[in-house]
Every structure is written in structure tokens, then in C-alpha cells.
Amino acid sequence: MMIEELWHSMMSSSWRAFFGVGGIFVYMGLILVTAMYRIKKGDHLDH
After folding, report:
1. Tens digit of pLDDT at every position of the chain (47 positions)
2. CA separation, residue 22 to residues 14, 19, 25, 38, 46 (Å)
3. Nearest to 25 by CA among 9, 44, 14
4. How far apart are CA 37 and CA 15, in angstroms?
5. H or E element in which residue 4 lies
6. Nearest 5°: phi and psi at 29?
7. CA neighbours within 13 Å on the CB side: how many for 28?
8. CA 31 to the chain's CA centroid
9. Phi, psi dihedrals of residue 3, rounded to the nearest 5°
10. Among 31, 35, 36, 26, CA closest to 6
């Protein structure tokens, strides 16, 4: 799976790559949380 591959690469790479991949995980989490919030709030129905 892609996330497992990113995690493995993050653990065996330089500190810059570690923080870069960590940033990717944070960004993906932010996207998911924002999407769930908008779905629950009903903003997607205003089109």
C-alpha cells in the first residue's frame, strides 16, 4: 500500500525527507478532517 511505502521510506531516510513525508501525512489528515466536517455540516448541498 502507498501509505506503508511512504512510512517505510520516511523511517529510513534523511531528516529532510522525514519531515517532508510527515508533512504529507499532516496534509492528507487535514484534507480528510475538512471533508468530513463539510459533509457533516452539509456545505456540499449548496451547489
Report:
1. 777 887 787 778 788 877 887 888 899 999 999 999 988 888 667 65
2. 12, 5, 5, 24, 34
3. 9
4. 33
5. helix 2-11
6. -65, -40
7. 9
8. 7
9. -65, -40
10. 26
